[in-house]
Structure formats: structure tokens, C-alpha cells
Amino acid sequence: MRLFVTLVGVLAAIWVIPFLLPVESGLKFGVPYRVFFSLIAVFGGFWFYLLRMPSMAPVKSTRKAVASIALVFVLSTGTIVLFANLAPQFAFEGKSASGATAGERGKALFNDASAGCFLCHVVAGSGGARGPDLSHVGAVAGNRRPGMSAEDYLKESLMNPVAFVVPPFDNIMPPFSRLSPEAINDLLAYLRELK
Ligand code: HEC
Q1: Do 194 and 138 form a contact (C-beta atoms < 8 A)?
Q2: Closest residue (by CA) to atom 5 of ligand 1?
């Protein structure tokens, strides 16, 4: 009973405290976070509940032991896969950027969370620093690899970034071959314009 009351208290805290946080704190806990923490609390409560149960008799039949291991595996892996499908971490497709010229659409895409280029690249002073500053990549691209045109180099940088890793960076850039051909064209047009 005490366990149950504690659990209800923890759940209430998870769902009520976010409303009490002052907006200025900048802290936001959306519903997915609250559901996540609630599940952890429920599983934690379940764990303490199990601890109080009388100990179980060891399983004697091998078949039953294997079956229960398989069941646990299917349930846990299945839950993770299901969750990953319901809430994918990366959504590349599905957005078509608006803009009159290819370069404008490419710029919008570059700064959109669906492509996420700005997370790792600085252009004109803003963006992340995990990758090279791309403010002048249109001019640099032609000299990166001997015998390779700027156009080909930029395309390769997107489709197969490991082909040439700009020192001193690591090859952490994901390939963007999943983007539509139109999106790739728009991005390339934008990158070419960065002189
Ligand atoms: C996870 C971080 C990350 C993301 C996201 C990312 N990049 Fe990169 N990018 C890098 C890193 C690190 C390098 C340098 C290493 C290499 O060349 O692979 C790089 C290299 C490049 C280069 C070559 C730059 C040069 O100076 O030769 C281009 C062009 C480029 N990225 C464009 C993009 C575009 C466009 C996007 C979005 C579609 C993007 N990147 C998304 C990390 C990232």
C-alpha cells in the first residue's frame, strides 16, 4: 500500500511539476518525456513489488526456461522496435522546402531540422561547429580533391561523406543519399552559391 501511494506521488510530481516551472527557466518537458519518466516510475514500482514477493521455485524444465527467455527477448526488443518506429529520431523525407530559386530552397532545407545541416555547420557565423565552416565552401570545393570539380565534390560530400574527410574533423557526417533528388539539387545549388 505504501508502495502504491509513493508511486502515485511520483507520477503526480512528473505530471504536475512541469506546469509549475516558470517559463523563464527555459525548461520544457513535453508529453513524450512525461510518458517516458512515468513508465520508468511504474517499472521501478513493479521492481520493488517483485522484491517483496516470496521467492520463486527455480524452473526445472529446459523447454520452459528457453521459452521464458525467448518471451522476454521478444517483448523487450519488440517494445523498443515499436517505440523506435512510432517516434523516429530522424525524419529526413516528407518536407519540401518553399522558395523561388533552387538556392533559396536549398538554404531553407539547410536550416531545417529535417536535414539538420546547421546543427554541425556554420554559415555566416551561425550554426554548429562539429563540421567545417561552410561560409565559403562554394569557392573551396574545387580545390579539395585534385581533378575533381566543385560540383562533383559537393555532391560526394553529401552522398558519401567518408570518401574525403576534411582534416582535422572526424567522419561523423551521415550520408544524405536518403534525401530526394530535388532536395539534393537544391542543397547543391545553395552550397555552390556560398563563395
Ligand atoms: C553530424 C554532423 C553533420 C551533419 C548533420 C552534416 N554534416 Fe556536413 N560535415 C560534417 C563533418 C564532421 C564534416 C568534415 C568531415 C568530412 O568531410 O566528412 C562535414 C563535411 C561537409 C562538407 C565538405 C566541406 C568542405 O569544406 O570540404 C560539406 C559540403 C557538407 N559537410 C555539407 C553538409 C550538408 C549540406 C549537410 C545537410 C544536408 C550536412 N553537411 C550535415 C558534419 C555534419
Answers
A1: yes
A2: 117
